[in-house]
Write a structure and sequence with these properties.
The complex is a heterodimer. Chain A is of the alpha/beta class. Chain A folds into two domains: 4-237, Rossmann fold (3-Layer(aba) Sandwich), CATH 3.40.50; 241-353, 3-Layer(aba) Sandwich (Rossmann fold). In chain A, 40% of the residues lie in helices and 19% in strands. Chain A contains eleven helices and 14 strands. In chain A, the strands form three sheets. A seven-stranded mixed sheet of chain A has the order 3-2-4-5-7-6-12, with helices on both faces. In chain A, β10 (250-253), α9 and β11 (276-281) form a beta-alpha-beta unit. In chain A, α1 runs parallel beside α2 and α3 (56-68) runs parallel beside α4. Chain A is globular, with a radius of gyration of 21 Å. Chain A starts with a strand and ends with a helix. Chain B is α/β, with parallel strands linked by helices. Chain B has one domain: P-loop containing nucleotide triphosphate hydrolases (Rossmann fold), CATH 3.40.50.300. Chain B contains seven helices and eight strands. In chain B, α2 links the parallel β2 (44-49) and β3. The chains are: A alpha/beta, B alpha/beta.
């Protein structure tokens, strides 16, 4: 099959259906509306169900139910809508159920605005809901990667029995790019969902999906199991791209749309004789800490570049473990950093680092 | 001897309505068209009628257009370019009513986006307007004649007037090859044959319009990518 031109939001829908997703529950919010719109049109043609719930809270609880019965299921929203879903997300994590949640991030806090932002980094990586849980969080930077990761997300969710989140800033949802739907080969050996509530037919004991534990020892047992799972995810699933690292005087850390802008910055600065590297996290959790072990000795500083106000700095500091000073440049509220602004900041930092 | 048709914007009617599927490249075409039009006429207005898209709208290029003498009419004018105000400026009536003004109407995608046009239908009398449908054969829903024609019909039904010209704007953004444009040309031929709507323009980046066969139907219209930042 050749390439087609798709909008990010549509591409997620197409990739999800190809990955076997047959259930979508959601509630409208800009800038992700093309995704539920696509699902409402395409799922019925694929023997699936699209349902617009009365709120984000009910949508995520419908996902909880569908996931419990073993279905491949997805929901999507944008920042404040994802905030509303947090209760359901922690329940799904606690119940160890697979699902895919898409956040096409807009400016915040509060109701915010509809323009692109990355200010839900904490919400995605620190857990907006209660308890010791984690999400596997993908952050694609182009639409081909978005499509590929959407298909991976369903496999990873099933394999680890955990909710997986895809975080794209509004630009990733709204922009168009050529994409190709390649034949998908799962990285995981997936087994039957023998834990799902599919009906006993009188043949077995009922499967119970539950997140209430009045016995603290039993609840701690669940937490031990979750921690083992997160340890496994941390060692297996961290992904990143390292770009132009050789002889880099400074390494920028950026994901999603911001990393695209940084790549332009790198080209422009190369013409001016300044070598800049990029570490682009593809997974926000687990954060790709290993990438920071291979920073060349020429590098004198790190800089987190975000469409948020420093939410990734902590992770960069943890990953680099005090070896280098960590600087920051970011815009917020729906403003997109311009290559020129980043270039100026880079020059300021490396000038000062001499 | 067959000569490649040079584009002649004076042959189009005073009011040009640019419609099409989401992502066909309507706004990019409309912006390029308005800038070309300004080279011929003193009074050119481009009206942003897109109230369905949150990103990538004409008004984001208002500064560039106005610097080059094109009047930009948009409900969001005077505000930061990315501000979302899904409203139609009442000033749109001025160029529609002024017979000395050349008008380009940049409309939102699909029949949903075109709904806003119905309110101005009484200005679109036959022979006074052109409604040009931008087609990209690489877009999911307009890859074949049935898809493209059903989009045309849905938009016509919504607006209440007929499409008068087709524009082959088949592209894959920076990956566009001549084969893409020619694939789109095959599609618009088919659409044209079934509907009787003529092919008006074949628009693409100049590098590709220079390579188009001499006998191609529709005038090659080279465009510059104004709507995409370098990092996109």
């Amino acid at each position: 099959m050749g390439k087609v031109l798709m909008k990010g939001n549509e591409a997620i829908g197409a990739a999800a259906i190809k990955a076997g997703c047959r259930f979508f529950f959601g509630y409208p919010i800009t800038p992700q509306n093309e995704l539920p719109e696509y699902m409402s049109r395409e799922l019925p043609k694929n023997e699936g169900v699209f349902l617009q719930a009365e709120s984000e809270v009910s949508a995520i609880n419908m996902v909880y139910g569908a996931a419990a019965s073993g279905a491949r299921v997805m929901t999507s929203s944008s920042s404040p809508g994802i905030a509303l879903k947090q209760e359901g997300i922690t329940y799904i994590a606690a119940a160890e159920l697979p699902c895919v949640i898409v956040n096409i991030v807009r400016g915040g806090p509060g109701l915010g605005g509809i323009q692109p932002a990355q200010s839900d980094y904490y919400q995605a990586t620190r857990g907006g809901g209660n308890g010791d849980y984690k999400l596997l969080v993908y952050a694609p930077a182009n639409l081909q990667e978005l499509v590929d990761l959407t298909q991976d997300a369903f496999d990873a969710a099933d394999y680890y029995r955990t909710p997986v989140m895809i975080v794209g800033d509004g630009m990733i949802g709204q922009m168009m790019e050529p994409i190709e739907f390649k034949e998908h080969i799962s990285r995981f050996a997936l087994s039957e969902k023998d834990w799902a509530t599919t009906g006993t037919k009188g043949q077995r004991e009922p499967n119970i999906i539950n997140t209430l534990f009045l016995d603290p020892a039993k609840l701690e047992e669940l937490n031990f199991r979750l921690q083992d799972k997160y340890k496994l995810i941390k060692s297996n699933e961290a992904r990143y791209e390292a770009f132009n690292m050789e002889n880099a005087q400074i390494v920028l850390v950026a994901y999603g749309t911001t990393s695209r802008i940084v790549k332009n910055v790198i080209t422009d600065l190369k013409d001016q004789g300044i070598n800049v590297g990029l570490i682009r996290p593809i997974t926000l959790w687990p954060f790709p800490e290993k990438a920071f072990d291979n920073i060349p000795s020429t590098c004198k500083a790190l800089m987190s570049v975000e469409m948020s106000f420093g939410q990734m700095i902590d992770d960069v500091k943890i990953a680099s473990n005090g070896r280098l000073p960590v600087h920051f440049y970011g815009r917020s509220g729906g403003m997109i950093p311009s290559p020129d602004d980043i270039i100026e900041k880079v020059k300021e930092v490396i000038g000062g680092a001499k | 001897m067959v000569h490649k048709m040079a584009f002649d914007l004076t042959k189009d009617k005073r009011i040009r309505i640019i419609i099409g599927h989401y992502g066909s490249g309507k706004t990019e075409f409309a912006v390029n068209y308005a800038l070309e039009l300004r080279k011929i006429y003193e009074n050119v207005s481009i009206c942003d009628l897109d109230i369905v898209n949150p990103y990538f709208r004409t008004r984001e290029k208002a500064e560039l257009l106005e610097k080059r003498g094109v009047k930009v009419i948009s409900g969001a004018k005077g505000h930061q370019a990315n501000l979302d105000i899904p409203m139609v400026s009442p000033s749109i009536l001025a160029p529609l009513q002024n017979p000395l003004e050349q008008v380009v109407l940049d409309v939102g995608g699909d029949a949903v986006g075109a709904r806003v046009l119905a309110r101005f239908k009484n200005y679109f009398t036959e022979g006074e307007y052109d409604m040009l449908c931008v087609i990209n054969a690489n877009r999911e829903q307009t890859q074949d004649a049935i898809g493209a024609i059903s989009h045309i019909r849905a938009i016509e039904e919504t607006v209440g007037v007929k499409v008068t010209g087709l524009i082959n704007n088949t592209h894959l953004i920076r990956e566009t090859m001549l084969e893409d444009v020619l694939k789109g040309q095959k599609l618009v031929h088919e659409v044209s044959e079934i509907t009787g709507i003529p092919i008006r323009y074949v628009s693409s980046i100049k590098k590709l319009t220079d390579l188009l066969p001499l006998n191609i139907k529709g005038a090659p219209f080279p465009i510059h990518m104004y709507m995409r930042e370098d990092w996109m």
